[in-house]
């Protein structure tokens, strides 16, 4: 089963589809991701102009947030079965934010 999350982010939000049942651990947003995203949002200078790689991106929430915080390049990776969810979340957010 899938659901769409609206994750508060700075003065806006990030849309994130979760599909836990179908994709196991790769299909959900972990609490650690939300904590890291909040930390990076409070310290945006850490990412400005940086190149980032996220191994095991799952939903891609952290990588999308990193791009919105000014990372110059973001590479998201995961298992082949999880990549369609990752791509969906990127496309959802590109539609609303052309900076991605």
- Rg from alpha-carbon coordinates: 13 Å
Number of helices: 4
The spatial strand order of the largest sheet comes to 1-2
State the secondary-structure class. Answer: alpha+beta
Task: Write down the overall mean pLDDT.
Answer: 92
The quaternary state of the protein chains shown equals: single chain
Could you give the count of β-strands? 4
Strand portion: 15-25%
Succession of helices and strands:
EEHHEHEH
- What can be said about the biggest beta sheet? 2 strands, antiparallel
Silhouette:
globular
- Contiguous runs where pLDDT drops below 50 for at least 5 residues: none
Helix percentage: 25-40%
For the termini, the CA-CA separation is 27 Å
Secondary structure elements and their pairing?
Layout: E1 3-9, E2 12-18, H1 20-23, H2 31-42, E3 51-54, H3 61-68, E4 73-76, H4 83-96
Parallel strand pairs: 3-4
Antiparallel strand pairs: 1-2
Helix pairs in contact: 2-3
Please describe what this structure looks like.
The chain is of the alpha+beta class. The chain has four helices and four strands, in the order E-E-H-H-E-H-E-H. The protein has helices at 20-23, 31-42, 61-68, 83-96; strands spanning 3-9, 12-18, 51-54, 73-76. The strands form two sheets. It has a two-stranded antiparallel ribbon with strand order 1-2.
Give a quick summary of the entry:
The chain is an alpha+beta fold and 100 residues long. The chain contains four helices and four strands, in the order ββααβαβα. The model has no long low-confidence stretch (mean pLDDT 92).
């Amino acid at each position: 089963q899938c659901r769409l999350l609206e994750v508060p982010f700075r003065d806006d939000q990030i849309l994130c589809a979760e599909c836990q049942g179908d994709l196991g651990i790769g299909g959900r947003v972990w609490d650690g991701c939300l904590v890291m995203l909040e930390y990076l949002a409070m310290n945006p200078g850490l990412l400005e102009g940086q190149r980032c790689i996220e191994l095991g991106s799952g939903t891609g929430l952290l990588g999308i947030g990193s791009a919105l915080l000014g990372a110059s390049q973001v590479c998201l990776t995961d298992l082949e079965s999880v990549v369609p969810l990752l791509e969906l979340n990127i496309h959802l957010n590109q539609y609303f934010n052309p900076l991605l």
